[in-house]
Amino acid sequence: MQNADAPKQEAARPATGRSSRLDAFVGSSKAAISAILAVVCCRNLGLPEAGWAAISAVVVTQPGLHPSARASWFRVIANLIGAFVGAGLSALAGHSLGSVGLGIFLTGLICHLARLDDALRPAFAAVVIVMFIPGGNAWHESMDRVFAVVIGCAASLAVGWVYDKSTGGYKLWRGGEEPARDAVE
């Protein structure tokens, strides 16, 4: 005997076939183009952290422009917080394991107070990366990383905007449905 809820469960499954293959193709294309654009921009500006630009571009690329903008905003702010905490602690207390732990702790508190709980992972990653920069100027290298993140996020948004304006977004092949709202990475 079939459960009365079975048809509802069947309807809730994600679409398969041609539509999902097209979604995969478009999403992958947007991520690839965003990464390439971010690296080219960094290289043209003489920034040494092009890899972080590419990473940021692919991390914030989402099906729709609005979720990408939200993810970009959170990632930029989180990186600023993590980079400043990491650079400040490196200058004051050095690169010890205790300093790294304190940096992660402080970064988490600051993100919570700023209502950026969705952006904890990139903030924590930023503080750890900055704290483990060998020698050199932690402030300068932190800002290079933050600028690269901003460029990566901007590249993803630019590609998303061009895509949405040129195709009408996912409405073309999803029958007018709004794109899914994905969580911030």
Describe this structure in words.
The protein has 185 residues and is mostly helical. It is built from seven helices and no strands. The longest helix is centred in the C-terminal third of the chain and has 30 residues, at 138-167. The termini are far apart. Mean pLDDT is 78; it is low at 1-15 and 171-185.
Briefly, what is this?
This protein is mostly helical. About 70% of the residues lie in helices and about 0% in strands. It has one domain (about 30-170).
Secondary-structure blueprint of this entry?
Layout: H1 6-12, H2 18-45, H3 50-60, H4 65-93, H5 97-113, H6 120-131, H7 138-167
Helix pairs in contact: 2-3, 2-7, 3-7, 4-5, 4-6, 4-7, 5-6
Residues in β-strands, percent: under 5%
Question: How many strands, which pairing sense, and closed or not: the largest β-sheet?
Answer: none
> In angstroms, what separates the terminal alpha carbons?
42 Å
Q: Tell me which oligomeric state these chains represent.
A: single chain
Number of strand segments: 0
Total discrete domains = 1
Q: How confident is the prediction overall: mean pLDDT? A: 78
Helix content: over 70%
Low-pLDDT runs: 1-15, 171-185
Q: What is the overall silhouette?
A: elongated
